[in-house]
Write a structure and sequence with these properties.
Chains A, B, C, D: One of its GO terms (molecular function) is argininosuccinate synthase activity. Chains A, B, C, D: Belongs to the argininosuccinate synthase family. Type 1 subfamily. Chains A, B, C, D: Its main location: cytoplasm. Chains A, B, C, D: It is found in: Cytoplasm. 4 copies of one chain form a homotetramer. Chain A is α/β, with parallel strands linked by helices. The first copy, chain A, folds into 2 domains: about 170 residues, Rossmann fold (3-Layer(aba) Sandwich); about 140 residues, Argininosuccinate synthetase, chain A, domain 2. Helices cover about 40% and strands about 20% of the residues of chain A. In chain A, strands 3-2-1-4-5 form a 5-stranded parallel β-sheet, sandwiched between helices. In chain A, strands 10-9-8-13-14 form a 5-stranded antiparallel β-sheet. Chain A has a 4-stranded antiparallel β-sheet with strand order 6-7-12-11, with no helix packed on it. In chain A, helix 3 packs across helix 9. Chain A is elongated and about 85 Å long. Chain A starts with 10 loop residues before the first strand and ends with a helix.
Chain lengths: ~400, ~400, ~400, ~400
């Protein structure tokens, strides 16, 4: 490790989990760059305590330690706006990891500004999407920020070297065993848990039943279906079974009920921004339920062409988020369009949950329903719709087809 | 009924089911237009015998009676090409009704040409999409065809009047009671059964459990999961559990197995082309399974940008089919693109079916997999991918974002 | 003319030009519907006096006469928002007629509400786009409005019958001769003049030189080029050669200078919404110049992906306007996106005008230029850009292509 | 220059112009990589002799020298297919440089295969698009090819160092003076000449009149307009004024006539793929005329929705080419769609050329015109179109708007 290259930095803000990898990074930054390290640890619903990171950081000599609960901000300003768009990457992935990165990136650069740090650092590897998401976000928000991605720089490119480095620098490795045992890597936040790598790298391999943590196996889910009602306001869920909930509490509740019924698993092969295919298993119980319910409330409150416009733009919007462009001007302008469509997406959706299934069984909106029974009825509509109009409608839509037939 | 207006036609080809409605239409055409009626009855897997239509037509004086088994053609030339595009209308509807109409339209005009008929006729109402699909199809294929849509013309606009007309003209009404009892209307073919109207017109109303006919209730489906393997060639399923099947037999098999496991129900509110919202319940067991499996085989055999291009175009393609533009030049040109993407979509998908759930648990392609474990691995990749490249990739992708930040 | 059908209306607001056609309509409405007619005549820069319409309407017994100067509103709220999108229908038509109709439709329904009229009426024919634009606009703004389109109803379907009707009802026909002589029909407003019909119906026929009215023949335009500077603020032109101008005055000025230099003619065949192709000749001098200048100011102030997003959406946006969907929710939501992109489109464009040509020769923005000479320079950039980054950028973008090659 | 790093290569194919830069590269490759260099010099209409490159290469010790006339292939397989799509990058750039690179890339890898070379090399800098285009093309066609981009590697990063290197290695620098004098850099082929860099780096600077080489200054162009006729077959121009011409001869002819009339200049700021904005001046006389004519022949032979589909896809297609993805699967599949739309794009376009202006004054197609005068006529159409159909057409298109109004 060449501690050379006059690459001195005064201070670096590190996205710090408290685990082995980022602890080694912490030490390595101090050694390699001779800099002060500021740690930032966020609770975004990953399901692990964040407080223990404080002691670990202190032990490594860190003075500025940021530990924050970002659950509400995460859901309100990131997850919900994204669900307004019905975003699915490649038709299946609910972007659970992707949507958390922009928030982390934002806080990293904000803390860099607060603490006068020149750089930020993260523990994402050089093969994945997360490095891109962290860094594009950071550069967009603070163009002159320096970014250190140790996994792309150092030579600690095997588990063994990492452990040796930890031992040599007296870094606790209690997490070692568990990590070693898990035959895949995980990422978790309030929206999802993902699994990839290890055994999952064979796309013909079916994951072990005990890999899944946030959803009950559909086979073991309750034998009785459960009905739930979700109330939406401007496209966001605001009440569950008639009870108002804050954004994070709502998502937690949706996770709980959907997870209990075995809803929200996905096992897919996706295309990474950096160019390769990758197999990922995802648990997104609440998000899966939310997407279904949101589509249902839109189905009665959203004008047809507005819905189609959103459907046409969705893959692009989802790809932007997947690729790390949350803070790009194009995502921000698209959000303006999407949010504008949600003004009247108000009402209630009723769903039946059962062993991995969600069936929408009812949707209503007192104020904004566009479903007009008096028009669509098969029965006498008392003149609400003149069937004779259909002839002209068809004739004029057919005109170009009839003319075009001449060419055949 | 004014038998006036000099609206004489020599001969009309009628899409004839043998049921009450089209029997009344048959008679009405003879009366109203003083014309010979040619009947056309197709078996497209609706699950009812078509032969009985012969005797009924004969009884009404029809001489030219066409009764045809179009199952194979329907699946091979309509259903499979559509599934190559992963088509879903408004994110949820698998276009079961929409995709059958172009085939019927085509045969109607072909028979008109064979028999020298000036016109065709159908039993679709003036409020629905089907009239549009029949007529746009027919006009595109034969611009000078005349089309008679009795429901838009006559005054038999209530059940009672229809029955009176039937009685008056000695038309058997055995179907009457059943029809009257079913609190909704149905459409069926090898791809799906749909239910709409009646009680379903209230979008808050949950349909009765016994409405569903082609899928077992997930609650009553087998308690044991079942694994199946589907083999694709050029994007079409060709083998089921290793056994070659013709297109129609394949879809029948997929219906059987998916239906048994309670897979393929949908309860949605959709936007009709003619301008109103409409609630529909759909059973598409085989199609639902096929879509899932097709996406999965694409996930390892289709290049990322090809997949994204398809995703971007899909809503437009699906809307074209929904709206009745199967025979339009734009659908035909889009199909060229889609089919070209499927050249290497070859391989096997393994799925686990259980009580309404389908989980993809494996996908492989000996000849065409783009999944390269040696690159995506978290382990040492022996130089297949240089992590340092990621820095340049990110830096250049970030450049515009950094410059753009100056405006903020 | 059957004055029957119990089709009584209390009051109708008529879009009234004062010309022969709408005068006949005025009378016909009074006769046919036994209703009071309210006339609405707008000055939107068509270049003819609107005041004379007052006397004509009075002579026909009209009591409520609305004559309004809408030039500023037209440009500010319709033309400029549309140009923010760089809208061109089918790559060539600047939507001069299309963009005026929504304003007229809006005023018609507003006046109907003010005067308690049940219906509105217009003089557009049943073959064109304008009927659609008027009526979709009116229905969107006031769903229960009744619309009377005499050209689709009456039997005055020839020039001769129209003149006879006028004579019979003592309607002045001074415009008759001119109309008869002009071998095409015209539409004009502050944005453009259009010519269609008559001799122009042969797409191989070159229009006479004297047809064009708002632009000098390029062959007769000044032999000296002229330089002009247009200053933009939030995407709208606000200064011409350094002088502030109101929206209508700006467009008038642009028309004047561009017209003098022979800029802004187009001779095209377009596809009407009602299904047929139609040949139109257009003069849009100021608009043509504005579009060129707007694209140029965007070229240095708009982020690349924002520009591409706009380019991708533009044809759809333009088609919405062409088809009459200005007041649709989808146009309104798209406008939100477009307007959001224009926040920083501030700066000056310099153009050289000469005999039909416009060459952008300079663009600058003190506050918002994203053109960074220090990066793009071929000379030494002092480290602003690391050329080595390009290798990683290319390598990762190539990765999927390299993997995909395996299939070949 | 460290001739170290065990980076030995057996043989490298170099895209060689014979000029100073690529001569230095040739020598540098021999020195740095100790390899044999194969030179490839293509005539693609750049307007300079290619034969002189032979002697220069021989003098530098090259044994395998490829000198090829690719004009016909360039126009037939690259330029014409691209014009079928009406491709314009960012609404203004006709992709003159972009479209030539894929052909060069293809020949480089083919020659590498023929000669057993491991690598290819080119003279594009690390800031531009061309490096990306060469390399993405090469990687797509031959994934294991090695690519050497000296400008990203060496330290000859100033004119002076380059000249010193040339002098030291006895490389003729006759081009030196001219290059030094030209205050911008150029690229030329049969489709265009581009100018960028130097004085043009100031986007407010108007280029000198004598920069432009392939088009006459509009001010100096003939005072008499000229009429020309271009005949298209399947979307490609095949006859000029009734005379059949091969692809390259056609483009040469179009260049000649358009250039003489001052047609085809553009002065724009564009967004490079590598992230920065860049100012470019382009002369594309024949291409500009071809685009105008192609749009015109499409206007009467292409169905509306086919035309709109093409317009919607065009920006994406153009961006693919601009960014270097000609050989990508997505470009190839899109081409299938585009080519399919051109099957009936047959006919003649008549244009009037005058001092920088092109006015389409006629278009006709004996076999494939969809322009039906009998329908669009303002005169009596003898029943070809029933104006009453328009009412139903409008009513049903308005239905959703009327219902949606309830939400307001």
């Amino acid at each position: 490790m060449s501690a050379s290259k006059s690459r001195k930095l005064n201070k670096v803000v590190l996205a710090y989990s408290g685990g082995l990898d980022t602890s080694v990074i912490l030490k390595w930054l101090q050694e390699e760059y001779g800099c002060e390290v500021v740690t930032f640890t966020a609770d975004i619903g990953q399901g692990e305590e964040v407080e223990p990171a404080r002691a670990k950081a202190q032990k490594l000599g860190v003075k500025d330690i940021y530990i924050e609960d970002l659950n509400e901000e995460f859901v309100k300003d990131y997850v919900f706006p994204m669900f307004r768009a019905n975003a699915e990457y490649e038709g299946e992935y609910l972007l659970g990891t992707s949507i958390a990165r922009p928030l982390i990136a934002k806080r990293l650069v904000e803390i860099a500004e607060e603490t006068g740090a020149q750089a930020i650092s993260h523990g994402a590897t050089g093969k994945g999407n997360d490095q891109v998401r962290f860094e594009l976000g950071a550069y967009a928000l603070k163009p002159d920020i320096k970014i250190i991605a140790p996994w792309r720089e150092w030579d600690l490119n095997s588990r063994e070297k990492l452990l040796n480095y930890a031992e040599k620098h007296d870094i606790a490795v209690e997490g070692k065993k568990k990590k070693n045992e898990a035959p895949y890597s995980m990422d978790a936040n309030l929206l999802h848990i993902s699994y990839e790598g290890g055994e999952l790298e064979d796309p013909w391999y079916e994951p072990e039943a005990d890999m899944w943590r946030r959803t009950v196996d559909p086979e073991l889910a309750p034998d009785q279906p459960e009905y739930v009602e979700i109330t939406f306001k401007k496209g966001d869920p605001v009440e569950f079974n008639g009870k108002k909930l804050s954004p994070a509490k709502m998502l937690r509740k949706l996770n709980e009920v959907a997870g209990m019924h075995g809803i929200g698993r996905a096992d897919i092969v996706e295309n990474r921004y950096v160019g390769m295919k990758s197999r990922g298993c995802y648990e997104t119980p609440g998000g899966t339920l939310l997407l279904k319910a949101h589509r249902a409330i839109e189905s009665i409150t959203l004008d047809r062409e507005l819905a189609h416009l959103k459907d046409d733009l969705m893959p692009r919007y989802a790809t932007l988020i997947y690729n790390g462009y949350w803070w790009s001007p194009e995502r921000l302008s698209m959000q303006k369009l999407i949010d504008d469509t949600q003004t009247r997406v108000n009402g209630v959706v009723r769903l039946k949950l059962f062993k991995g299934n969600m069936m929408v069984v009812g949707r209503k909106s007192e104020t904004d329903s566009l479903f007009d029974q008096s028009i669509s009825t098969f029965e006498d509509d008392k003149g609400a719709y003149d069937q004779k109009d259909a002839e002209g409608f068809i004739k004029l839509n057919a005109l170009r087809l009839r003319i075009q037939n001449k060419q055949k």
